[in-house]
Amino acid sequence: MDDREAYGRWRDGRLAAAPTCVAGLVVEVGDITALTPAEHRALLERLRRSNMAVYAEGPKPGRDHKAALKALGERLGLVSLDANALADDDGITPLTVHREGARSRYIPYTERPIAWHTDGYYNPPDRNVRALLLHCAGKAADGGANRLMDHDILYILLRDEDPELVRALMAPDAMTIPGNDEEGLARPATVGPVFSVGPDGSLHMRYTARSRHVIWSERAAPAAASIRRLLDGPSPHVFEHVLEPGQGLVSNNPLHTREPFRDDPAMPRLLYRARYHQRVVET
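Structure tokens predicted for Taurine catabolism dioxygenase:
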């Protein structure tokens, strides 16, 4: 925070490299289980520029989508899956509408919108979610777009506005997620920073725009309001995209949302999600 020269070099490089439209994130691939060297390089190039990439391989009927997603993760150097409570036994989560049961009580398994967040914001610091993969096996009948923003860019916008906003968000008590005492899903309260720097020097963000079940420190509350203003206002750095079957997101867990959608039970929306405790290698 005290090295303005180093920050200026990093800032200018990030802004100069940032994509200007969704098309700049997309990489056409033949098969995510067998990326060619050129396809792999193209994904890494986009991840280095924006912490995210969208692959498009087209539908492959009859394939084991979970095995394919896991193979893609391994090709990208991702091995430490975040086995959250609602994931399947293999650590990969099928995101589809549930009308009853434990999953039906949680927004990702409904047709309702999901506000801005990074995945795993309720995890303790030693289990931060640093990479996120999504694979679309079936799209909604209507709606369900994702909005995406590189957390590096948000950091820059905040720091350019007022470095004290960033200092507040890097404090160890900036954001508290109260514990959950539901049987089978119990977890303790989690206290930690919004922005932190990993052992490799990369920036990590832990955030949710939810107004309930989150407690901001007195110092961080104004900074949280600034985040909401930047995310909810018009911005050339926010991209919107509906994943088609055979498309997927490869990312270092940037900020993202999900719009509401209408599900067709005969052809349900189905995405597979894999979360990892490390970033994509070489990004």
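The chain has six helices and 17 strands.
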